[in-house]
Each structure stands twice: as structure tokens, then as C-alpha cells.
Amino acid sequence: MCNNECDATTEELAHPPELMFDFEGRNPTTFWQSTSWKKYPKPLQVNITLSWNKTVELTDDIVLTFESGRPEQMVLEKSLDYGRTWTPYQFYATDCLDAFTMEPKTVSDLTQRTLLDIICTEDYSRGYVWKNDKTVRFEIKDRFALFAGPRLHNMASLYGQLDTTKNLRDFFTITDLRIKLLKPASGATMIDENNLSRYFYAISDIKVQGR
């Protein structure tokens, strides 16, 4: 990171939003970074909004790569009307019941009948425990597989459903995407109030594939 010397007004110490979308082949990795949690216990909440000004049909998983440890609470939201209204896509938390009063689930719990259900998952929120995994996903292909089979061999079945079922087609279609970061990774049950500069969000890459 920048050893507590981050400064948005100085180019070599800044971490602007465009670094979430640059080419990730360089070393060291470039990333956007939020302000740190200096105002604890007031929540450190940040919204990241992506707007295409056109309709996009998602074709692969949405993947966020965090350099700060994955957030302990987060919501992925979508809009189909250019940001006028928003609906949740998925909730993420270390404890779904505590954070959102929702039972934790995974995509493997879904069926064709419940595909459109909005779930809360705990799979991607254990920030400091799984240091090797920096990614948070919204699993598009696993949902496709409910109609096309586990290896997506029967895409004709999926396309048939998308062509004839508007709610299903709308589910995989967006004009805007919003990432609501609600609680940064802490790695502990207690927040170290003497070292609040260690708590922040940092994202090196956001991958959205569609047509």
C-alpha cells in the first residue's frame, strides 16, 4: 500500500478509481483505494457505480479483485433503467443473519424455480482468513448451468428460456451496476481503534463480461 502516506492530490501516492479498470499485467498491481476508517464507529460506506448508457446482457461471472482483504459486508445492485431505480443482485457478509437478517446460501442451493431469488452468501467475505483469495464473485455461469447443464453443453435450452421468459432475461440484463461497500475487512471480532488507518477498501480490478 502507501505506508499511511496515500494522498489523492499527489500522482505517485494517489489511487484514483480508473485504476480499477486499467491493464492488470504490471508489477506492482495498481488499485483504487478508499479513505481509511478514521471516523469509526461511523460506518465506512462507499458506493462504486458503473454505467454503460446501454443495455448489457451478462455472459460471464462478475469478478471483483480486492487488495485490502474482502469486505465483511457488501451489496451488489443492478439497474435496468439507467440508474433511476436499483434492485439487489446479491448480499455478501461474514454473518448474513447478523448483517442482513438473511439465511446464508450459495448458488448451489438454487434451482430453476428459485433462480431469481436474491441470496446472501458468506463464501466471499472472510477477508484475512483466506489471504490467497482476493476475489468476490457474482456467479453468472453457475446460474446458466441450471438450464444448460453443469458444463453448459445445452445452451439451446438456456437461450430458449431467455427468449420466452422476460423475468429471466431481465435478471441477466443491466444498464448499471453498483457495488455498495458497507464494512471493510478487519480480521478480528474487535476493531483496533488505535490503528484505524489499517481499515479501508482497495480494488485492483473489476471484470464485467457481456454483450
From TrEMBL:
Annotated ranges, domain Laminin N-terminal: 1-211
A GO BP annotation: animal organ morphogenesis
Name the UniProt record assigns to this protein: Laminin N-terminal domain-containing protein
Organism encoding this protein: Pleuronectes platessa
UniProt-listed Gene3D superfamilies: Galactose-binding domain-like
Pfam families tied to this protein: Laminin_N
InterPro entries in the record: Laminin/Netrin_ECM, Laminin_N
UniProt keyword annotations, A-Z: Disulfide bond, Laminin EGF-like domain
